[in-house]
Design goal:
- The N terminus is likely disordered.
- This protein is α+β, with helices and mostly antiparallel strands.
- About 25% of the residues lie in helices and about 25% in strands.
- The chain has two domains: about 70 residues, 434 Repressor (Amino-terminal Domain) (Orthogonal Bundle); about 100 residues, Jelly Rolls.
- The protein is elongated.
- It has a six-stranded antiparallel beta sheet with strand order 1-2-3-9-4-7, with no helix packed on it. Strands 6-5-8 form a three-stranded antiparallel beta sheet, with no helix packed on it.
Amino acid sequence: MDTEVPTDSENDADVRIGRRVRALRIERNLSLAELAQRAGISIGALSQIERGLSSLRVKVIWPLAAALEIEPSALISDPGEPVSDLYCVRAGRRRSLPVRSEGISKELLSPPGSALTGMLVVVEPGGGTASYSHNGQEFGVVTAGEVELVIDGTRYLLTTGDSFAFRSTLPHSFRNLGKTRCEIVWVNTIKPSEERDGE
C-alpha cells in the first residue's frame, strides 16, 4: 500500500499557515496555552501547526479562527495575498496605533514578533504632542517635510533626511511647524501596547 507523501508545495503551505497562526497569536498577546485552550486543541497540536509540522485540519480551522477573532479564510488565504507574518509587514496590512494628540497618525511597521517597535509617524501641519517620557530608547529619520523635536529642553529643527536618537526617559515632544505633512520612520524599544503619546 502506497503512503501519500506531502509535496514541497504542501509543506510550504503548512509552514506559511503556521507562521501566520503564530504571528496572529503573538499580535494578540496570547501564549500557546491560552490559544490552545480557547480553540479547544492541545498545546502540542497547536505547536506543530505553528511550526509547519502538521497541516491545519478543517475541523480545527473554525475554532482556531474564532479564538483569534478572525474569519477562517484569513488563515488559509492565497499566497499572493498580503497577510500577517512573523517577519514582514505588507504595506496594505499596517495596523493603525491609537494616538491622543491632534494632527498625528501612527502605523505599525514592525511585525508582531519583533523586539523593536517601528512606526510610520505622520504629523500634519500644526500637529504635535505635549512633552512626555517613558522607558526605552528611540531612533528616527525624517522621510518627508520637517519637524521641531524637543529633547530635554533642547529644540531641533529637523528636515528630510535628518535623524535622531535618545533615551525615552528624557522629556520629549515634537511638532510640525511647516505647511506640509511630515513623515517620520520612528523606532523604539517599547511594545505598541505601552506606547504613550503626549502623556
